[in-house]
Write the structure tokens for this entry.
Amino acid sequence: MLEKSYQPSDIEGKIYDIWEKDNAFASGQKLDADPYTIVIPPPNVTGSLHMGHALNNTLQDILIRFERMRGKDTLWQPGMDHAGIATQMLVERQLEAKNINRRDIGREKFIEHIWQWKEQSGGIIFNQLRRLGASCDWQRERFTMDDGCSRAVLKAFVQLHKEGLIYRDKRLVNWDPKLQTAISDLEVEPKEIKSHMWHFRYPIEGFEDKFLVVATTRPETILGDTAVAVNPDDERYKDLIGKYCILPIVGRRIKIVGDEYADPEQGTGAVKITPAHDFNDFEVGKRHNLEMINILTKTAHIIESDEIPKKYWGMERFTARKAMVDDIKSLGLLDKIEDHTHAQPYGDRSGVVIEPYLTDQWYVDAKTMAKPAIESVEQGRTKFVPENWSKTYYEWMRNIQPWCVSRQLWWGHQIPAWYGDDGTVFVELNENDAHAAAKLHYGKDVELRRDQDVLDTWFSSALWPFSTMGWPDNTNELVKHYQTDVIVTAFDIIFFWVARMMMDGLHFMDEVPFDTVYVHALVRDEHGAKMSKSKGNVINPLELVDKYGADALRFTLTSIAAPGRDIKLAASRVEGYRNFMTKIWNAARFCEMNECVIIDGYDPENNQQQLNRWIVSETVKCQNNINTALASYRFNDAASAVYKFVWGIFCDLYLELSKPLFFVEDDKAVAETRATTAWVFQNILRLMHPITPYITEELWHQMGYSKDIDNKNSNDISLLITSDWPQLPDNMIDNAAIHEIEWAIGFITAIRSVKSEMNIPVATKIPVILQEVSKKNKLWLDRNQITLCRLARIDNFNFDIAPPKGAIQIIYDDLTIAIPLADIIDLAMEKYRLEKAIKKSENTIFGLDKKLSNQGFLAKAPADVITENKQRLLDENTSCDKIKSALAKIIDAM
RNA sequence: GGGCCGGUAGCUCAGGCGGGAGAGCGCUGCAUUGACAUUGCAGAGGUCGGAGGUUCGAUCCCUCUCCGGCCCACCA
């Protein structure tokens, strides 16, 4: 006997253990089956489960469970990302708490500490994913820094270098002075800040009192100015081109150059040029062959250099800014200061202001690699769902910049590059190969020094769809599971990850890494704000799991996963779906109490009862709806299809409508109804399993479906997770039964509605008089009489007798239903009710009339639409007339 | 500056092909001795942001506009 109510916490852990013990998640068990493959977006090793993960992994799990049941050889490849900067920062902070500085203990020891940390506390997110019910193939768990992935990274780097697609270059990078590393464009976050625009007067050489006024938001960079640019077409300054300014404070002679970059409309029209500290100025500098003077140390202090007055040496950048303004002011060269709001770049990890900084770094020629990646989306080889995200993808890919992949960190894949004394670089898979290459180059054995930098974490993530399957070896897994079917992700990592997997997948595997990119929304709080710790509006998915169960959370996330929008999550919604789980549990108890068990040899197509034929039809329709929804990644449609069917149709209608059948003395009907109920319920468990795996698996066993259904000849327990998805054919849909039962439901509703409206107590059993009963209605009345009587609380049916004066009259379909309760009916109220109905009906008639008297409509609308509207008008007129005559009778009785 | 998305019931949101406006929550009334109050039954509630256009017909397509959000670029 089932417990009185469903307690998720009692069963979820148990069920998950059963799945794992049974190896239910493992791929490669159905060798002949078609593959279905998803690689997980590898969470950071430092990560813990947030709502975004919960959504992302619920959707993947739904697809995997769906396809697993449909017989595919499913691989959901799990794994973690080493998360270079995040992890290094975390362990560094932990060591600092113990007064250990990473530079004191050195690189090797520090990395050892990180590995230790990973073993102890890394990857807690995987246990959290287990609680959510994720059916990843855990035996294949990978890590971007494990041996296999590391080998892939080396191979990829070396190959790209040999192909000229990775190169070393000295140019400006985004420099993070706190972390003291370069970062990519994507790791920079612009923030609006309130600052000032300082206007300075630069004296012009050869004139006593002539100045060129330049404006800047960064006065400290004056130390690195090597030119002033004006637009060659700017009448004000045209004549000055080729002349020189004397840089205030510094005293350096700097050239006035003509360059289109200077916009006459902006600022003063004259721009100071600091090639080593501004991306635009860098380009100007290259065009005019200007000197590039670096003024900053790696920690963003003023460098000690002969080019710079001693007084500024060692000053912190913002201190230097202030000093520079003060000093120029005291020279009388400060023209004015304006308030100015502008965006400043900040490091997304460190939170400090990023400096454009001139260094040697490794770059990937993203422009070249992007070409095939763009083309394959244009050709539809990879599809974005929703489609419009492809625009975002194109936008970025078509304007892609060289990707700086070197990082001045310790945690990560060290770059496989070795340098000779003269700086010649040898990029090889290992040190031996590098020495061999060096020997070839120098003609002798030489000392080599390995590049100290590591690669951007995303460099290894970009290889994920094939590095996890054994690449560069041509493994069976790789052959079978690449390309993968779908990547499921939020839009914020289309650039970071999806785009780069596309580039690398096409380059190394010569095939797109996934058929589909499914982009889901970001989860926000119930007011639409981003969840963040500082705002305190973070909802922890595990707390919801504790409180309502994993299935309720999963159902919630599924039901709000409409494509292409932000998702606002309110806990109340989870509560609602917890109630849904309870409902299913109770439906199971109903089945149990009424001995609804699976009957061997039961064939739903042989059902005699229309009600049973109807619920079978609805089951097929539900199955079809879910199939269609999941095939097009419309998760919310799948959720709503199953919700409406299970709660609205099966529980509220079928179980109620069928109850009376248990009381007839027709053993055959009872048996059929029991068998049908069990059959439907079993299919419900199958249909719901991808979304709500725990409760369905539990009930599958409790209801005894695990023993004799899939595996009749064995005593082995068969699990729902590995059972078959329903394959109910459309010819099981019986439209005649659907019409009849829907008519019966409408009949019941019509009577209940009137009783409620007329304040007739629900329990009052009423007699009804039916007039103008058509043959069809008579048949349906007869066949469903017991059910109708019970659910509409009808005492008895009387046909074709005149109803007494003052009876309530209901127009339903072709019928006029009279309820002769004149003594307890408030005639005025009934009059009002009928008048209201007439008004409503007349409104409808008016609308239809107008439409049907429109010549244009008759001439141009499709025939079926015209026919339909004509029929509606006819029906409405008939029913309106009937209500009117009913009203006449009431007035007569008053 | 370039691009994307949204505005539908009190709230949060669905509305594949243009043809009778939907759900959940909330609200109102009624119901409680056998699946379920984590419930059932019955209801109220909409100028589909605004204007114009296309069309026989527009929540849906087009243009403009107002409001909100996001992404990219922008450090004079």
